[in-house]
């Protein structure tokens, strides 16, 4: 049986998207291949023509999710600047939907346990996001990279904390306090 052109690419894209959402929502360790493939609308056996292992799928799906996140960050920064990016990131909607949200905030503890070459790859993606934030600061901002890194760390850490106590008043307070802190980091340079 012959399949139409592009079917293999479409299947791979569906697998990567399903894996990224499943990993962000449930974690890497808790996400089995069967669930991912079911989410993609494919059989378990359809994974192996595309990926040799779950580890390979993790790397590609997380990398793809981080690239998409970086693209979305660029759009938000271009349309509303750093404050818009802070408000979008530290929103209740983002907190309440980890399956479609920030890959780093959803997976940070698991990413830290990945092999060194995978962590290096994720570090490159993180650096690209920090570079985007730094580039959105006004020219001549002293230590723009340091400010951008502090903003990124504040956002990711706050989102993780807010998710850990989701459903409580404390969760909302964490988001608000972190937004104020991140705005204070960029405010003197606006």
UniProtKB/TrEMBL annotation:
PANTHER family: TRANSCRIPTIONAL REGULATORY PROTEIN. The keyword Transcription applies. Gene3D superfamilies: Homeodomain-like (1.10.10.60), Tetracycline Repressor, domain 2 (1.10.357.10). Keywords: DNA-binding, Transcription, Transcription regulation. InterPro entries: Homeodomain-like_sf (IPR009057), HTH_TetR (IPR001647), Tet_transcr_reg_TetR-rel_C_sf (IPR036271). Transmembrane segments: none annotated. It comes from Oleomonas cavernae. Residues 32-51 bind DNA. Residues 9-69 form the HTH tetR-type domain. One of its GO terms (molecular function) is DNA binding. This is TetR/AcrR family transcriptional regulator.
């Amino acid at each position: 049986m012959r399949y139409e052109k592009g079917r293999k690419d479409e299947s791979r894209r569906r697998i990567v998207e399903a894996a990224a959402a499943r990993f962000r929502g449930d974690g890497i360790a808790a996400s089995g291949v069967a669930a991912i493939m079911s989410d993609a609308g494919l059989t378990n056996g359809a994974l192996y023509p595309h990926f040799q292992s779950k580890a390979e799928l993790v790397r590609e799906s997380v990398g793809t999710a981080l690239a998409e996140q970086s693209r979305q960050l660029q759009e938000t920064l271009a349309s509303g600047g750093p404050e818009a990016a802070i408000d979008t990131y530290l929103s209740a909607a983002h907190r309440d939907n980890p399956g479609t949200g920030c890959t780093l905030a959803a997976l940070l503890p698991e990413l830290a346990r990945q092999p060194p070459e995978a962590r290096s790859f994720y570090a490159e993606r993180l650096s690209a996001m920090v570079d985007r934030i730094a580039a959105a600061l006004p020219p001549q901002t002293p230590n723009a990279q340091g400010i951008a890194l502090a903003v990124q760390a504040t956002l990711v850490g706050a989102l993780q904390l807010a998710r850990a106590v989701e459903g409580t008043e404390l969760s909302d307070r964490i988001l608000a306090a972190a937004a104020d802190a991140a705005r204070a980091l960029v405010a003197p340079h606006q």
